[in-house]
Amino acid sequence: MDIQRFKHQHVDILQRIDALRKLAHGGIQTNSHTIAQQVQDLGKVVNLHLAIEDRILYPAVRKTADARIAAMGQAYQEEMKGIANRYIRFTNTWSDPARVAAEPDAFRDAANTVLKMVYQRMQRENREFYPAIENI
Q1: Mean pLDDT across the chain, nearest whole number?
Q2: Residue 30 CB: number of other CB atoms within 10 A?
Q3: Buried b vs exposed e over 42-68: b needs ≥16 C-beta within 10 Å?
Q4: How far is residue 5's CA from residue 55's CA, in Å, rounded to a whole number?
Q5: What is the pLDDT of residue 102?
Q6: From the CB of residue 34, how many other CB atoms can be counted at a distance below 10 Å?
Q7: What was the pLDDT predicted at 28?
Q8: Could you count the other beta carbons within 10 Å of the beta carbon of residue 6?
Q9: How far is Cα 126 from Cα 62, in angstroms, rounded to an integer?
C-alpha cells in the first residue's frame, strides 16, 4: 500500500507545530494574531489528514490478510478518536487571537499538552504503523 501521501502530511503537520512553537517562544501576546491563524490553518490540515485516514487508510488496513496489522489499524483508529476530539477543542478555543492574547499561559499549557499528544502519536505512526503497512 502506498502511504506516501500520509507521510507527506505528517511532515507538513510537524512543520506547522514547530512554527507554532517558535511563535510562542517569540511571545504569545505579541504574536497572538499569527498564532490564532496558524492554529486555525493547522486544524484544517489535521482534520483533512484524519478524514483521509478514516475514509481510506483504516478501511484498507482492516481488509488486509495480516490479522496483526488489521488489529493494529483498529487500535490506532480508536486511539485517534480521543486525540482528535481534544485537538478539535484546542482549535476551536485557540483560533481567536483575542483569547490567545488574553490567556497566554492557558494557551501555552493547552498547546504543550495537545500538540505534544499529536506529535507523539505521529511519531509512533511513523515508527511503527506506517512501516507495518508498507510491509503488507
Answers
A1: 95
A2: 12
A3: bbeebeebbeebeeebbeebeebeeee
A4: 14
A5: 98
A6: 15
A7: 98
A8: 20
A9: 18
User: Contact 22/94 with Cβ under 8 angstroms?
Assistant: no
> What is the dihedral sign for C-alpha 54, 89, 86, 10?
positive
CA distance 58 to 77: 7
What's the rounded Cα separation, in Å, for the pair 126 and 30?
34
What are the boundaries of each domain within the chain? 4-134
CA of 114: how far to CAs of 18, 49, 51, 67, 106, in Å? 13, 16, 19, 31, 12
Q: What is the CA radius of gyration of the chain?
A: 16
If we measure between CA atoms, which residue out of 128, 1, 126 comes closest to residue 58?
Answer: 1
21 by DSSP, 3-state: which? helix
> Do 20 and 38 meet the contact criterion of CB atoms below 8 Å apart?
yes
Question: For 122-132, what is each residue's pLDDT tens digit?
Answer: 999 999 999 99
pTM of the predicted model as reported, rounded to 2 decimal places: 0.90
Residue 2 pLDDT > 90: no
